Protein 1
Amino acid sequence: MPARTGLLTVLPQTASILLLAAAGGVGVLVEGGLQDNATEGSSGIAKELSHAAPPIEAHKTSFPGRVSATSPYIDPVTPHRVYAYAGTTAFIPCVVNNLGQRSVSWVRHHDIHVLTVGRFTFTNDDRFEVHHDDGSNEWLLRLRSPSTNDTGIYECQINTKPTITQLIHLEVLEPRAVITAGQELYLDRGSTLRLTCQVLDAPSTSDFLLWYHEQKVANYEVEKVEVNVRVNNDTTISTLTLRDAQVHNSGQYTCSPSNARPASIRVHVLSGEHPAAMQTNGAQTLPGPRGCFPLARMLPAILLSLPPLFRLHFQLHFVFHYTS
């Protein structure tokens, strides 16, 4: 019986053609993808599939084979991990020596999906294709417009017995902004607000970076705001500074680079009579005995970690000290 892979039916090794069961007709696999009712290219397909050893399956560990002058093996220069950026074409290389009449296949692990065999594509996802130049020993799996969902293990196989295989982990990085102060910031009225934003996992520096206070562009529409942008080791870093912050300066601040996902923080500018956790320039301080907001939030976890006798003593001490 033929082995089935998704919509594709892989016929036994003696078959000369790969058929696709499709509504209204028969499709045939051609170089670069599927073509309905194809009549040409069958001889090329037959040549590729005559060397394919079905069924192709995913393996848990790599077995690249031994270095040899005559037998096929995957060259040690083939990487175990490849990084790519979301939206930018990813290339996963597999360097194969002494291939001879064998075939190279690519398998995606998370759904055990055969992507390519030889030069032919086995998937309806047209973002995938294999690239190989005549005379070269490199077989590149090319993935256009990758997303973080494409992160995972891809397997390069040679159809020997046992199968020679190399597992390669593709990690797709999504450029993102990070505000170093976290998600919330408290400071006294009249203090200096200083926010720092870094653009991480970006293939290049940002063309521009805007800060927003609620719906206003803070770079241009908020009084007393100073914005500085610099590049350090190919990382874009921006600092927003607002001196003599007032209560009306409270709200959501957003760092929005041209080439990355934005990041936001909520700022609370408080009058002196209100208890609050004070955090300035990334350092957290307490204004006095009544400034117990962070401690109050941590209290349940602290109490649960104490033995019963110490727990009671701690509760009595806390109530006496912070309510007197």
Protein 2
Amino acid sequence: MASSKKKKCIEIIPENAEFEQVRSLGEESLGDESLSEDDGNDKGTSEQEEISRKIKGDSLETQQSNQPYQKKQRQKKARCWPHLDVVVENNQKIAICKFCKTRMKYGSTGCTTTLNRHVDKCRVAHGQTNQALLQFQPSDALSSEVTLGNFKYYHTQMRKIISHYILVNELPFRHVESFMFDMVMRTATPYWQKISRQVVKKDSVSTFEIERDKLRENLKSIRKINITTDMWTSSHQKLGYMVVTGHWIDSNWKLNMRVLNFCNVPPPHSGFVISEALFKCLNEWGIIDKIGTLTVDNASANDVALRYLKQTFSLRKKLSIEGKMFHA
């Protein structure tokens, strides 16, 4: 029995030793794996940081270069940005007022409430100071005498005058973006704020609508208006255009003349098409019942168009002398 037990003990000991060796090897392998995982995690995080840094750098480069198929940088539309400069100090964005040099923190959230409030309250940013500016103004264009007056810059009034300037002189909208125009305006007033061609286009449309409404109100007070019209085809565009001009005498016995319409008339330029275009224009201005005479050239299509219009107006019984002077 003793020998058998010894044999058994001899058999068990190598098994336990092998188990301990296997367990020790397993622990070492697990330790190596954990270390390799930690190293892998560290490498993974470092690689992710490098990738994110590259992505941010690439995004900034693409935003600055405006490459195609890339997300563009968000445009700053708040009213405070034209009056502020943004600098970075100690990883903190600082907004500096261009006029009073006030420094304000600009958070990462992009909130501009504080900045807008400062611009609204900053009198310097609006061309005003604590003391009113004195300006020498001539009392008369031909006189050498001058008078003192308070100066105040109104940017809205300046935009209105510039829109009239562009329309009257038939200048392109990009004229306001030229270097010399900006220099002239800055020489005239230090409070000048540069505007873009998109703004001038919008202001010109607003000016047209305002003047159109004024003219429509003036036409309500007149009794009779005479119309002249003409058509021609553009040589390079191959398009037909029609211009309609109104002539009337106001309450002060002053002769007035205004272009009521300048439009494209698609072909064919038959008498019926011309009459429809004329009737549409007169109806838009509300002067259907105030037509005195209508003057055209000697084209045969115009004779047909005037015949259609005379029949239409005769049914309304508003023509003078039963329409005998309608076609001139």
Protein 3
Amino acid sequence: MEQNVYIQENKRVLFIGLACVDLFQILQSYPIEDMGHRCIESYWQRGGNAGNSATVFAILGGLAEYFGTLAIDKELQFIQQDFQENNVVTQNCVLIDKATCPLSVVIISLGSQSRTVLHTNKNLPELTIKHFQQKILQPNLSPTSLQYGWIHFEGRDNACEIAQMIRLIRDYNIKNQSENRSFKPIIVSLEAEKLRLSAELIKYDMWKLPDVMFISKDFAKSEGFLSMADAMQGFFPRMKEEAVLICAWGEEGAAAISARTGMVFSDVYKPQTVVDTCGAGDTFLSATILALTKGRPLKECITFGCQVAGAKCGMQGFQKLKEKHFQV
């Protein structure tokens, strides 16, 4: 099926989910409770799974748009400017008044190479199907006006709304394909990273919805799978027949499966020195999607994802990926 997920070059990939602010605190060792500690370094960075993936996609040369809710708060200008500097479109974002920007404090221990994330989302609401219909897929939108070839969803607490959005895309595809055989349907991908999403995927019958599904290592392990091969075999029967399932497994690389190719694997690509692993999963996802949109074979796609993710782990943030000149 992966040969059919390529998109037209003038179409964007839309990343839907969270954008927030990350505060990084770098220490030599993890802090001891109830003691004062001096950090080696501290810096701010825009974060959020979907926001990060959109940024990496644009850095690698893709046409990216981010869609989510943004608080009208003191961090708003910082978030919007950072997206703009990275050529990520944000014109359709829903601005929420009287809300607080989500914040993550990221504690990085150089000694153990651990990363601890403390996240706060006080009152920023999630996207709704109404937002999606108003901003992205309006009723009676003509295919010639459609800007997107691929829409990616970060699995979040609005699973019910996400399921409705994906079904709306499915109905749009069916309608336009019935009227025009040359219509290229919108590809849909979904990320299951957060452990609390497990019950929602079943409740709203979401396993059968996406064309491409990304599963995190932590999510797979929480479901009882101890290897990526076991995860592939366990999760794949839950998906629709023509779908693709992909799972990154940290230092062991990544695996993917489709009915056409069977199971394929990629090795991990470690940098000489690990500097910052925060956002590595978002990078893998984004780079893999980029390769899929170009019609590359499934094994090449996850290999490209692992290569770019490995390079990201060797640098702070994402900006130096521009210097690597990756070719899909």
Protein 4
Amino acid sequence: MLVPQGWADLPDDLLQSIIFLLGTPHETLAFAATCHHWYAAFLSCLSAIDLFALFPPLLLRPKLPDSNLYSEHFVDPTNTVASVRCRVPWRTVNKMDYIGYSYGNIIYCYKKKCHLFDVFTGAMTKSPRLIIGKRDYPTFGALTAPPASADSSVLVQVGCSLFRWKVGSTSWLKLCQIDVPFNHLIVSRSQLHTPIFQVMSFKGEIFAIDSSSNLFKVFLEPRFRLQKLSVGWAAVKFDGYMWFVVCDDMLLLIGPANNRYQAVHLDLSSRRKRMVKVERLENWAVFVGSGTKSQAFACKNPERWGGRSNCIYLCGVDGEQPWCTVQLGEEVKEPDYWERQYRWRHLRHVEDGVTDLLSTIWVFPGVFSRI
């Protein structure tokens, strides 16, 4: 009988049981970084459990230029006094234009190049230069998968065009028109007239939504293209912005509507996609940022770390508290809440125009994504 000689020799079933007992994302990252064997056990867990649903995300409050308002640490909902350092080089990124966040990476643009910064490791990935006009600039950016994945791409919108860079390649692909099917035989062409602000990968497919509530399906192969989907929006009329979030096998859209946070389930089973109103989140809690270019997360059974089910955790917008919670469908009674939501969309004027600074967002390690 073989007896383990050290920590690196512990059996896989024991290591995987330890992962289930870990309480926070950074504890899990520390586990995976222990040795090659433990990292392999961590990777094998990704196909069996959804780590996004197991833990709450961490709160990232950016260090703004000429401000000491926030420290360079995350805020952990499970332990607000824990000190988890953020690895973003703030002095560098505050000279750049923030265009999005996804899979643990903040995406900035500087001199027509995209710079991806992993907020947990500090690793930086840089794209080739975008071939765009002198006065053109990106307004949105998102990853389709973690940068380490073989099929990872960055999507960037510039004006009416969508660009794709496959991570590691030497050039961008440009998409100028979208497919608008009238039926299964006829397809017309149209331009992308409004800004995209959310991209989500779900069950092997990529979806996007713009500020006019148009829903798209993104195809990367064999040809880079965007297809507009026919959707019935009768269930809920959102107040202009919303977030994709995955709960188990459901793709939800969640956002403010009539001074309440409401949610709809995107039913993809029919040719004409339907939005079905969700009355309760049941045993889920959803975390949304203070800007539409951020990524939303869902955590299952939040009571196990002191959280609340059927609630939305909203990033703090005034610096007084890290976050606040509202129940799904509950009226937000604070009279100036919505005004402060908009006020915390920090803007700055740059040479090419006006772009967003990064505001308070929820973050999760990209390596936790199932591969």
